[in-house]
Write a structure and sequence with these properties.
Shape: globular
CATH topology: Deoxyuridine 5'-Triphosphate Nucleotidohydrolase, Chain A
Strand order of the largest sheet: 1-4-8-6
Radius of gyration: 19 Å
CATH class: Mainly Beta
Distance between the termini: 38 Å
CATH architecture: Distorted Sandwich
Strand content: 35-45%
Length: 145
């Protein structure tokens, strides 16, 4: 199913687009005037120049680009970052350099991907006990290797 969403593009870069018919996400571009150098383990907030208005019931998730991760060690710090349908500010991306070397982010570089997804809202019902399951309260690694 396709939805329509309004967008303001205050950058010189193209509107987000799906590169192939099977693409789940669209690339986000660094809307910066000059290169930014990220030192090892340093993080920074990169503007994209776009503002979006998503229909209610949808969220946008900002995720790392696999190419930047494997080639440069760059990731999105709060991955996935959520953009709510009622947010109207500029989309910005928190990048972190997880490599041991300085990494340069250049103007117009594709820095992250954005995936739009539906979500479910729940009415929480407070109870004293939860139904038992085979797993129970076993945490990380409790289901085996």
């Amino acid at each position: 199913m396709k939805y329509k969403a309004e967008i303001i593009n205050n950058s010189e870069h193209p509107l987000p687009f799906y590169a192939t018919d099977g693409s789940a996400g669209v690339d986000l571009y660094a809307n910066i005037g000059e290169p930014i150098v990220l030192k090892s383990l340093e993080r920074t907030l990169i503007p994209t120049g776009i503002k979006i208005a998503l229909p209610q019931g949808l969220e946008a998730q900002v995720r790392p680009r696999s190419g930047l991760a494997v080639k440069k060690g760059i990731s999105v710090l709060n991955s996935p970052g959520t953009i709510d349908s009622d947010y109207r500010g500029e989309v910005k991306v928190i990048l972190v350099n997880l490599s041991n070397e300085e990494v340069e982010i250049t103007p117009g570089e594709r820095i992250a991907q954005m995936v739009v997804a539906t979500f479910v809202k729940l009415d929480w019902i407070e109870v004293e006990n939860l139904a038992e399951t085979q797993r129970g309260s076993g945490g990380f690694g409790s289901t085996g290797e």
